[in-house]
Write a structure and sequence with these properties.
The chain is built from ten helices and five strands; from the N terminus they run E-H-E-H-H-H-E-H-E-H-H-E-H-H-H. It is globular and about 65 Å long. The two termini are 33 Å apart. 46% of the residues lie in helices and 12% in strands.
Length: 238
Amino acid sequence: MAQDRCGQVEKTLFIITYGRSGSTLLQNMLNALPGYSLRGENANLLAPLVRAWDDLRQSEQAASMRARGTPSGPHQPWYGYEAIDADRFGQDLADSFLRQVLRPEPDTRVLGFKEIRWHEDPALFQPMLAFLARYMPDAHFLFNTRNHEEVRHSGWWRGMKRATVLEQLETAETLYARWQAAHPGRCLAMHYNSYAKDPAAWKPLFAFLGEPFDPELVEAVLARKLLHMKWQKPERKP
């Protein structure tokens, strides 16, 4: 990673979820912690970057050219392609995403974002998380879910057929479960219906993050959400 103001970032954190899951409350809770900066959605800007990296690292053309043992020449149509370093390319993409999209503040220790579109291309789901795990500082993942019937009665889901909504949500959660099973130390599952009104349900999140549990801060965030107050970072007592 480039040695600029991103250098103080100790950990990156990514909220993996679908629309109308209540994940904004989770985002707000994280942003109430000192040194945390969790950005909102970015229209899945990561996807095309990861697709380019994944295409390059799995390129049969590049593998075939390397197998010949001699560099390509300027007279050949794929001149220089075999010399592209997929790993360096991936790291440069990640560094740029961190600096230009996530944009850490001067005091940011933990940086990340929330996105609801991870499942839209199921084949790209694993490469996207693998990309983050490989190239982002100490990457960790929060998987946020919600009661499916509540989701389907919220927002744009209401205009869709019930079977279609449930199929999409089940597809998403199957992807989530597979990644969590393969990377248990990096992941935590959160369920909106468990934590939306119960301050104690936030204890596993604080433990996962290595932060002391602060019941007053939790209650302040929950109260702000319930009262629809203008967002303001709660003060944390020393």
